[in-house]
Design goal:
The protein is mainly alpha-helical. It is 64% helix and 11% strand. A two-stranded antiparallel ribbon has the order 1-2.
Length: 74
């Protein structure tokens, strides 16, 4: 639930065009929450990120109205 709260705070900061310092703080809160969750599950948050990055790094697509759309969904 804490992670969802942190993501909501980031969404609010972005929607309200808050300064980058606020955005940085909210992203940090998300990262800390993810790190704690990973530790509770006996996972390494950096390994989780690498796993997902390796899956998507070669994905093709483009940004549409600020949202990434995979090539096959265009």
């Amino acid at each position: 639930m804490k992670l969802t709260e942190e993501v909501g705070e980031l969404a609010q900061a972005l929607a309200k065009n808050k300064p980058l310092e606020n955005i940085k703080e909210e992203i940090g809160g998300i990262y800390v929450s993810l790190t704690i969750l990973a530790m509770q599950l006996k996972l390494d948050v950096k390994e989780c990120a690498r796993y997902e990055y390796d899956k998507i790094v070669h994905r093709k697509g483009k940004m549409v109205n600020g949202i990434y759309v995979k090539e096959e969904d265009l």
